[in-house]
Design a protein that fits this description.
- This protein is of the alpha/beta class.
- Helices cover 31% and strands 30% of the residues.
- A five-stranded parallel beta sheet has the order 2-1-3-4-5, with helices on both faces. It has a five-stranded antiparallel beta sheet with strand order 11-10-9-13-12.
- Helix 2 (38-47) packs parallel to helix 3 (64-70) and helix 4 (87-95) packs antiparallel against helix 6 (131-144).
- The chain is globular, with a radius of gyration of 19 Å.
């Protein structure tokens, strides 16, 4: 039986140790990384090719929701949130079929979550982008507990507009309207009707489909490099070839984007022009 390659993310040493002790007793799990903050989690998810991540929500700096928003949806592992959140969060997780384990950890509850992940992985079905359900839950939670500043990043916009000579994306975030220059966008990650707009290390969340946004962006600069990922070619700082025709793109602020074989033509053309 193939084991699920698993990442543990928690800023509390005792919580990581307890969760590790439970998972080490489960033959279905192979722990491939342990992270104590969100930035380590993003790096680990990119490099270790994990199937599953146990992700603490309430971490200082980059919290669990920030990690989901920052990760390229096409490489996002299955996620089990670890949370001490209140009823609002749990209701949202249930509605959007997002799995979670409550803190303090209970071994039997962790076991059930692992078995569900195993069943999903072994079913062989072509599941949609897992980021869709996760973003839906985050959106619901942000609306219900808006007083928590760490959850106020999820925005809703009625429409997409570009204005002026510089072409700007108009993003409504609660009572604030942000004007983001198209040229400043590093990359875009889609999850159903949610789009994560990555701008110099800041993430703006809008409601739009990949198809609609792709039609608005400048096609000469913005290219699809994965099923749900668009990159601004002008923001690429380094291209690293991988095996089997894939690439890794190094962007500013430490962002790394994988290019799948199905979309490598755009990067080959970009390199040829250089």
């Amino acid at each position: 039986m193939a084991k699920l390659r698993t990442i543990i993310v928690d800023d509390e040493d005792l919580s990581r140790e307890l969760l590790r002790s439970y998972l080490e007793e489960m033959p279905e799990i192979e722990i491939v990384a342990e992270c104590k903050n969100g930035r380590e989690a993003v790096a680990a998810a990119f490099y270790v090719n994990a199937h599953l991540i146990f992700l603490d929500i309430q971490m200082p700096g980059m919290n669990g929701f920030d990690v989901i928003q920052a990760l390229q949806g096409d490489i996002l592992p299955m996620v089990i949130f670890a949370t001490a959140f209140d009823k609002y969060a749990l209701d949202a997780f249930d509605v959007h079929a997002v799995d979670y384990v409550l803190k303090p950890f209970d071994e039997e509850r962790v076991r059930r979550a692992v078995l569900r992940a195993v069943a999903r992985h072994d079913s062989g079905q072509d599941f949609p982008n897992p980021k869709l359900n996760l973003m839906g839950a985050i959106d619901d939670i942000s609306k219900k507990v808006a007083e928590d500043a760490s959850l106020e990043k999820v925005a809703a916009t009625e429409h997409m507009l570009f204005s002026g000579d510089e072409r700007k994306l108009v993003i409504k975030d609660k009572d604030t309207i942000n004007l983001v220059a198209e040229s400043d966008i590093d990359w875009v990650d889609a999850a159903g009707d949610y789009m994560c707009i990555h701008v110099s290390g800041v993430i703006h969340i809008i409601r739009s489909t990949m198809k609609d946004l792709e039609q608005e962006l400048n096609p000469d600069a913005f290219k699809r490099v994965h099923r749900s990922t668009i990159v601004n070619l002008n923001r690429i700082e380094r291209v690293v070839p991988l095996a089997k025709g894939e690439y890794v793109l190094q962007l500013g602020h430490g962002a790394r984007i994988k290019v799948s074989r199905n979309y490598r033509a755009a990067i080959k053309s970009f390199l040829a022009q250089g």
